[in-house]
Structure formats: C-alpha cells, structure tokens
Amino acid sequence: MKSIKSAAFLFLAAMVFYSCSSDNTTTTETKQESGLAHQAPAAPVEDDGKGIGPVKSVEVGADIDQALASEGQSIFEGKCSACHQLSDQKVVGPGMAGVTERRKPEWVMNMIINPEEMTKKDPTAKKLLAEHLTQMTNQNINETDARALLEFLRQNDKNS
User: Fold this and answer.
1) Signed CA dihedral, 66, 144, 100, 87: sign only
2) Using CA atoms, how far apart are residues 7 and 56, in angstroms rounded to an integer?
3) What is the mean pLDDT of the chain?
C-alpha cells in the first residue's frame, strides 16, 4: 500500500514538473497554427503631448488660482511628496521643478490619473520609467484633484 502511494506521488510530481517546464513549443505551435498567436500589433499612439487618459483639454489661466493651488498642495503633501520633491532633485521619482513648463497640462494630469497606461503607451512616460526604473503608483486621484495638483505645480514653477 505504501509503495502505491509513493508511486502515485512520484507520478503526480512528474506531471506537475512536466506541465511547468519551459518547453512550450507544442502549445506555441498549436496557437500559431490556429491563428491565436498571430494578432496584428496595436497601432502606435500618436504623440500629441497630452498623454494617455481621460484628460483631453485643460484651460489654465495666466494667473494662479490660489484656492485650487492650496488644495493641490495638501494633496501633494499627502500623496506625492514621499516620491517627488518640488525642486529638480530626484527622490524615487523625478523632481517636479519646471514640469509645467516641459509638459502640457493634459499630460501632467493624465500622468497623475493614469500612470500605468501612460508608462506603457506614452513615449515621454516610457522614457521617464526607463530613466527612474520605478513605476509611479496609482494614487486613485480623480480629475478634480489632478487639476488642483496641476495648479499647485504651476504655482511652484512660477515661484521658482
């Protein structure tokens, strides 16, 4: 009885090992033959400098909205300052100094709202990920709060 259990265990262990092996040529060949593995690559995303996400257009005035910037400062201190400095100094992520001068307002907001998709599809965000080697964490910030953060960053850049 003990030898039957041992044999059954060895058989199961061998099956698990075999199924987890890296030789998946049969599976890949089968997928290719059935047409499943051959799908057209996604069309490249046009880089309009606005990024990937829900924000398509942002109106910013010449003057800083102080109330909005103050709200953005609170959000920045609570959700962003662990990884970003307001200077050009890198911590985990890049420094924020000059970001509103280098990027369109829509790009800044889309990066805040949608960091994973941005680093997969937006050329500038891809470069930042390659440079800093850390994926920006999605802080679940909505458009209203992202707009407040943008205003705070605009204020920071104007005061620099």
Assistant:
1) positive
2) 64
3) 81
* CB-CB contact of 107 with 49 (8 Å): yes
Q: State the amino acid at position 8 in one-letter form.
A: A
Q: Contact, 101 vs 154, CB < 8 A?
A: no
88 and 128 inside one domain? yes
Phi, psi (deg, nearest 5) at residue 90 = -80, 140
| pLDDT, tens digit (0-9, with 9 covering 90-100), for 141-158 | 999 999 999 999 999 999
Report yes or no on 79 lying in a domain: yes
CA distance linking residue 23 with residue 92, whole number of Å: 38
Residue holding tokens 């059935």? 34
Instruction: Please give the tally of structural domains in the chain.
Output: 2
Domain enclosing residue 87, as ranges? 66-159
Residue with tokens 């010449």: 62
